[in-house]
Design brief:
Elements: H1 9-15, E1 27-31, E2 34-37, E3 42-45, H2 48-51, H3 60-70, H4 83-95, E4 100-104, H5 107-126, E5 132-136, H6 145-150, H7 154-157, E6 167-170, H8 175-181, E7 186-191, H9 205-217, E8 221-225, E9 249-252, E10 263-267, H10 269-272, H11 288-301, H12 304-328, E11 331-337, E12 340-345, H13 353-362, E13 365-366, E14 368-369, E15 374-377, H14 385-403
Parallel strand pairs: 3-13, 5-6, 5-7, 7-8, 8-9
Antiparallel strand pairs: 1-2, 2-3, 4-10, 9-10, 11-12, 12-15, 14-15
Helix pairs in contact: 3-11, 4-11, 12-14, 13-14
Main location: cytoplasm
Family: Belongs to the class-III pyridoxal-phosphate-dependent aminotransferase family. ArgD subfamily.
EC number: 2.6.1.11
């Protein structure tokens, strides 16, 4: 039998590497959009594990898939394939532009694979001079050294020595700056179709179409990082499907597994052919447990009812947040798409987003930040309306205390 130790938040400081600073409470149970901590205190979950728990906590379809697969087969390695991986890949290719799928364990790994594939594609087709990757300031693409360098936030990439080269950045939504930087040396452009960590910033329609046209002009690949926006988060299976622009490579994770670690890179057959056997790999990527759970998530999320429901919930969130703001005047903007929403604080509260996060937790609701001045909401895609209203009522109490 397992000998379960008694642990508290103080245990974290004693045994964990201090790269995180978690909340003082420790969640121990979740059901739907509610969470309970060690003391039995209940919280409404608007954080969703940072846009991961797309079906909330312990959704029956996920629990059933995990239980059934857990009694069959856990791990094989990629010396062999497996049925859950093949079924999930078939469903993803049937539902998207892609012909081929590579499975990984996280969004960072999916983006790493996308970037390596783009470089290999360019090398094979055009030679070693075509290696420039362009991304956008305030972007976020993961924590590997390659992806954190491509992400446009120096605070995450500086301080670790020499960075991967031939990577440059321009401002999001600045098409002229991008065009000035591009040339025949450009291998790929990587972008989020809605910036998440950078402040929940939507792209201009002309900007996205212009990026696609520039990629076509200079024979560069367009990589969409849909780690946060994908799998129903914006009201379609993937955000690109609402933009009128199709990427060459797409990275998916977070909601893909609904809480079980999995990532995927999607691309065309022609591009995928450049990752020949031995060029890239993952010990756990595409394991039967993760793929079985992700398939169950896919079957729930990729339905008209759920995707339309995301849009309905978006409006309820925005309307209620506007009503709160009419009383307290703390937000200068409420923005985002689907259930990836951001409330930017006014100048009076500039830099105090974490204060709002902490105050909300004290009132029994879990939210996120997206930079120092934006409060982020990424709840379950199927969160009940009554949970939205209850959570926002608790959030309003937190706002009232901070607004004075």
């Amino acid at each position: 039998m397992t000998n379960k130790l008694s642990v508290t938040r103080a245990t974290f400081d004693d045994v964990m590497v201090p790269n995180y600073n978690p909340a003082q409470m420790i969640p121990v149970k979740g059901e739907g959009s509610r969470v309970w901590d060690q003391a039995g205190t209940e919280y409404v979950d608007f954080a969703g594990g940072i846009a991961v728990n797309c079906l909330g906590h312990c959704h029956p379809a996920m629990v059933q898939a995990l239980t059934e697969q857990g009694n069959k087969l856990w791990h094989l390695s990629n010396v062999f394939t497996n049925e859950p991986a093949l079924r999930l890949a078939q469903k993803l290719t049937d539902a998207t532009f892609a012909d081929r799928v590579y499975f990984a364990n996280s969004g960072a790994e999916a983006n790493e694979a996308a970037l390596k594939l783009a470089r290999r594609w360019a090398l094979d087709k055009f030679g070693p001079e075509k290696d420039q990757i362009i991304a956008f300031n305030k972007g976020f693409h993961g924590r590997t050294f390659f992806t954190v360098t491509v992400g446009g936030q120096a605070a995450y990439s500086d301080g670790f020595g020499p960075k991967p080269g031939a990577i440059e950045h321009v401002d999001y939504n600045n098409l002229a700056a991008l065009e000035a930087l591009m040339s025949d040396k450009t291998c790929a452009i990587m972008m989020e179709p809605l910036q998440g960590e950078g402040g929940v910033i939507s792209p201009d329609a002309e900007f996205v179409k212009g990026v696609r046209e520039l990629c076509d002009k200079y024979n560069a690949l367009l990589i969409f990082d849909e780690v946060q926006t994908g799998f129903g988060r914006t009201g379609s299976l993937y955000a690109y499907q609402q933009l009128g622009v199709t990427p060459d490579i797409l990275a998916s994770a977070k909601s893909l597994g609904g809480g079980f670690p999995i990532g995927a890179m999607l691309t065309t057959a022609e591009i995928a052919a450049h990752l020949k056997p031995g060029t890239h790999g993952s010990t756990y990527g595409g394991n039967p447990l993760a793929c079985a759970v992700a398939e169950a998530v896919f079957d729930v999320v990729n339905t008209d009812d759920v995707l339309a429901g995301v849009k309905q919930r978006e409006q309820l969130f925005k309307t209620t947040l506007q009503q709160i703001n009419e009383k307290y005047g703390v937000f200068q903007d409420i923005r985002g798409q689907g259930l990836l929403l951001g409330a930017e604080l006014t100048e009076k509260f500039d830099g105090k987003a974490r204060d709002f996060l902490n105050a909300a937790a004290a009132e029994g609701v879990m939210v996120l930040v997206a930079g120092p001045s934006v409060i982020r909401f990424t709840p379950s895609l199927i969160i009940p309306e009554q949970d939205i209203l209850e959570g926002l009522a608790r959030f309003e109490r937190a706002v009232a205390k901070l607004a004075g």
